[in-house]
Design goal:
Distance between the termini: 12 Å
Helix content: 40-55%
Largest sheet: 4 strands, mixed
Shape: globular
Number of strands: 11
Number of helices: 15
Strand content: 5-15%
């Protein structure tokens, strides 16, 4: 499986490396909401969460589906700016239908790579996002209803939330890491100019490579080694040609690829990787590796690493029946890899990242990539 970006005919100047305050804020918010993904940031997460005022912490919980399980495209600017305020101004210019459709992206959705109508104008899509929100609790359900009934008001609310984050903790972070990220972007830009994309991609991430078409057409594509599959185009005659690379100091081990139809492809890559916990006892390893030997269970782990999902959501995402999902999940649970909890009428499954980390950093990075 891989994400593939067709760049046939794309001029080199359309490949951009640049830091983004909004993308880095979203990476920091993801770390705060999912500390199990980022064991190397444990100290920062603990200190920052403890220092948050109650009102700000509550508002972050309301909106965390924007960055917790999947990272919404609205948080990955294709044209980064120097300040968070400028990037928020760009968000304000997106029309409501496009904004709301992007806001409700969820990593388990099978429709991400296909054009779908906005839930503001399509009843089926509105019902789908409301059902997914309900499975994740009353806070997200209420937030979803507000977004659908008063998108303008909630967009103002969301901008104020990000501005309050900047005042509370992110302003200090950006002053510290922004210089490092800008230096990395300049280095990658110089490498691209002098060595070409084929050398720049693996220098950016070991999961990135450049491939030429084998059919003699002269096609060229960026390949992102991920358990998730997807295809998009960035070539010169596309609606918004180009590819944007965003460095992040908070993102490891994630390598994010935003490639929804109609959006310029964006890749957020980590510039550092903290140490992981020590592996577990050997007697547990064989059972867990055997559980992971099935390719479908590997795919399910990739989705369940992002956040809790219901059996029905997993069945829809991977085109298999709910009983098949249940059998795979049961195998993973017996190996201690998956946790299950009930929320009302919904049963949610999620990968136990602490257990996965003990299997080794290569596997953890693979499912979280």
């Amino acid at each position: 499986m891989a994400n593939v970006i067709d760049i046939t005919g794309l001029p080199p100047e359309r490949i951009v490396f640049s830091p983004s305050p909004l993308a880095e804020l979203s990476a920091a918010l993801h770390a705060l909401s999912e500390p199990g993904h980022h064991p190397g940031l444990h100290g920062w997460v603990t200190a920052t969460n403890a220092a948050l005022k109650t009102d700000l912490a509550d508002r972050l919980c309301e909106a965390d589906f924007l960055w917790r399980s999947a990272r919404s495209d609205i948080l990955q600017p294709a044209r980064p700016r120097a300040t968070l305020a400028e990037e928020l101004d760009d968000l304000d210019r997106i029309d409501d239908e496009r904004f709301v459709a992007a806001a409700f992206e969820i990593s388990c959705s099978a429709t991400y790579t296909h054009p779908t109508p906005s839930p503001l104008v399509n009843a089926d899509e509105r019902a789908r996002v409301r059902d997914m929100a309900a499975a994740r609790g009353p806070r997200q359900a209420a937030f979803t209803d507000r977004m659908l009934t008063d998108p303008d008001g909630l967009r103002v609310w969301l901008r104020r939330l990000f501005e309050d984050c900047e005042e509370a903790f992110f302003g200090d972070i950006w002053r510290r890491v922004g210089i490092q990220l800008a230096a990395d972007a300049r280095h990658k830009t110089e490498l691209l100019r002098h060595k070409g994309l084929a050398e720049t991609l693996p220098a950016t991430s070991a999961a990135l490579s450049l491939e030429e078409a084998r059919d003699g057409t002269g096609g060229v594509r960026i390949v992102v080694d991920k358990l998730a599959g997807g295809r998009t185009t960035a070539y010169a005659d596309a609606a918004d040609p180009g590819v944007t690379f965003l460095p992040t100091s908070f993102g490891w081990p994630h390598l994010l690829v935003s490639h929804a139809p109609g959006w310029r492809p964006v890749i957020q890559y980590p510039v550092a990787g903290p140490e992981l916990p020590a592996p577990a006892a050997l007697e547990l390893v064989q059972q867990r590796l055997e559980a992971l030997g099935h390719p479908m269970r590997m795919k399910l782990c990739r989705t369940l690493s992002r956040g809790p999902h219901t059996t029905g959501e997993l069945a829809t995402a991977y085109g298999i029946t709910p009983p098949e999902v249940s059998r795979h999940v049961t195998t993973l649970k017996k190996a201690g890899l998956v946790q299950t909890r009930r929320r009302g009428r919904y049963v949610l499954h999620q990968l136990d990242l602490q257990v996965v980390a003990r299997l080794g950093s290569d596997f953890l990075e693979g499912v979280l990539r």
